[in-house]
Design a protein that fits this description.
Blueprint (H helix, E strand, L loop, with lengths): L16 E9 L10 E6 L14 E4 L5 E8 L3 E7 L5 E8 L3 E5 L4
Parallel strand pairs: 1-7
Antiparallel strand pairs: 1-4, 2-3, 2-5, 5-6
Length: about 110
């Protein structure tokens, strides 16, 4: 007679959360209100068009500030910003807790 042993395996993990925050400025250093900022974990999970998969988006406030809370602090992220007139900025290897300035430039 064969007997199958039942095993109960539990894996506990702790997610250390952080914040991605910063400011979007123009090339002359002025804050850019209403810019759209996106972030995504840095990895090869991009579509062929280069769009982020599972992206998160916020608009900057009247002083150009943005914040994403509750991100995995153990990962690095890529941030992108787009100004109201299509200007763009990008920064890679951003870690939670690092102050970021995204300077948008005209297309």
């Amino acid at each position: 007679t064969e007997r199958q042993l039942a095993t109960d395996v539990r894996i506990a993990t702790t997610l250390v959360e952080g914040t991605l925050a910063g400011v979007v400025t123009s090339s002359d250093g002025q804050p850019v209100p209403a810019a759209l900022v996106t972030y995504a974990p840095e990895n090869p999970n991009l579509t062929l068009s280069g769009a982020f998969v599972g992206q998160h988006v916020v608009a900057t406030d009247d002083r150009g500030r943005f914040e994403f809370g509750r991100v995995d602090a153990s990962r690095s992220y890529e941030l992108r910003a787009q100004g109201p007139n299509g200007e763009q900025a990008q920064q890679k290897q951003v870690r939670a807790g690092t102050a970021v300035t995204l300077t948008i430039k005209p297309l």
